[in-house]
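Incident log, support desk, overnight shift.

02:14 A customer reports that sequence design results differ from what the structure should imply. Their input is reproduced verbatim below. On-call engineer (initials T.W.) acknowledged and began investigating.
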């Protein structure tokens, strides 16, 4: 084994979980990658691998709470090694995992505010606009007094994400709208949002 083997094991695990429904074997390869990277003590790759494990594999078999914890470790690892790209990915992925976990919405809003500052600091427009679209979703669910401002920012962020062709951010936006419409019994709008999200899969 060499350090690059870690990426190979993780990639194969993602393939097994996402395309072949072989979750147990996927976990074995993912865990092998995470154990092996500790042996090589490659800080930059460790953060990336933790992100990929949390994002693609962990929640197939373990509670969302552990996914949030893994994203926390990934974010620290990415920041420690200067991997700002994956730190940005981790920011909005962690917010979504908090929602999946059933975290208090006020707590989620606090975390979004922290990550918005981070996204501004690293000057990552895609991360910033993805987080703003998530903030829009949370404030709609809360019926926040700041909804009008959040709605304006959410719509602006969607247009910015489309302009930059940032497919992941667009999917997060429409998936959030799918949830929102479903919660408030707007089923046709929910299906429409899901269909819009589907058009960006693979982008």
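02:41 Re-run completed on a clean worker. Output:
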């Amino acid at each position: 084994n060499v350090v690059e083997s870690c990426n190979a094991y993780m990639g194969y695990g993602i393939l097994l979980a996402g395309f072949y429904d072989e979750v147990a074997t996927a976990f074995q390869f993912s865990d092998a990658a995470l154990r092996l990277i500790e042996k090589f003590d490659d800080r930059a790759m460790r953060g990336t691998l933790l992100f990929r494990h949390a994002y693609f594999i962990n929640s197939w078999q373990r509670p969302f709470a552990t996914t949030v914890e893994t994203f926390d470790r990934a974010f620290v690892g990415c920041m420690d090694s200067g991997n700002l790209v994956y730190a940005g990915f981790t920011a909005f992925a962690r917010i979504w995992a908090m929602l999946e976990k059933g975290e208090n919405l006020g707590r989620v809003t606090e975390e979004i505010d922290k990550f918005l500052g981070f996204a501004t600091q690293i000057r990552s427009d895609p991360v910033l606009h993805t987080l703003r679209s998530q903030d829009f979703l949370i404030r709609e669910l809360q019926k926040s007094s700041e909804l009008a401002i959040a709605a304006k920012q959410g719509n602006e962020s969607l247009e910015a994400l489309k302009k930059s062709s940032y497919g992941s951010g667009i999917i997060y936006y429409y998936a959030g709208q799918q949830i929102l419409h479903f919660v408030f019994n707007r089923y046709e709008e929910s299906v429409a949002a899901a269909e819009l999200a589907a058009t960006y899969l693979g982008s």
